[in-house]
Give the backbone structure.
Amino acid sequence: MKRQKTHVCLVSQQATPNLAPALDRTLAPTHILLVVSADMKQRADWLEGVLKRHGLATTRLAIANAYDYHAISEQITDWLAQREDEDIALNITGGTKVMAIAAQEAFRLAEKPIYYINQEDDSVLWLHDRNVTTHLEKKIRLRDFLEVHGYAIEGRPEKPEIPANRRDLVSQLVQDVRAFGSALGDLNGLAQAAKKTLRSPPLDERQLANRSLGDLIYLFESENLLSRQDKCLYFPDEPARQFVNGGWLEFHVYRILSDLAPSLGISDYATNLRVTAPNGKTANEIDVAFLLNNRLNLIECKAANLSLPGSTGQDKGADAIYKLETLLKLGGLRTRGMLIDYRARLTNVERDRAKQSGIYVASGTSLQTLSNEIRLWLR
């Protein structure tokens, strides 16, 4: 297909079908016209901000009523009439159905190319030219994806190094989930209590006599992630404390994704994302996020005992599901979620709720084959 310098996009709540082709090197537009109804101005602001950061010029065509077929058709027809000799294509994927029909008719009469993005496989269907289909590059990054949906990332997405010794430590925790499950609860509590001082309270007599806890502490101590003195645990810095306090599970998931990325075609992935909602106030933390086929996937990692009381009057399992349900709104209708429950303490009721919300649960010994679990989830 001939490259069109200007693409016309119909702004709607689903931003990805407009963003992906705009950033695609094979389509390579240099200018984007955003057709914007009154209720989509903020969405257009988010989309325009990302496009401009990538060096794309943007202009807007404001329409008063997204359901006024004749007015929309006349506006787009008049706009095209002033640009008869220019290379212009219509992305018909967004907008209301009325906007799409009106725009399509105007472009058909002007004999300009029209395409539709099939989000299931990122194919580009060229409607004006029978049997012509191309495919998008999968190049949207997490920052672009979240910002085009109105969410701001604080700092840079974390992409931790994966040294062999750290990988071996985490693998042992996963393989010995039954032996370490209860002891990890004690260690999490000690690490959490050391949040401000990097020093835990003294271990009590029960904890001192717990062989599994002693073995667990030794594993982290051997990697210089903590030390023991006077019955207390000392952490060298805050990152080490966070790693001991459940961060190791996020590290494990990140390591699995790094192994899967080439074969699955994962375009971007990161851990410990801190994002701010469009209202500029509400903050959320995402344990692990990745993009596959320009679709956002979120993983919540829980090493704690999810049967214990949570912060909302329910147990921690219910809290975790509620948080993930909220996070799934970040990336539009196609966002997927997974909950990792290391100690397998979700109740049957909570598992049913997760299933109804489209949340995939991996827990206990299934984490030993997490690569397969992720493949099943994505399938």
Remarks:
- The mean pLDDT is 92.
- Residues 184 and 213 are 7 Å apart (CA to CA).
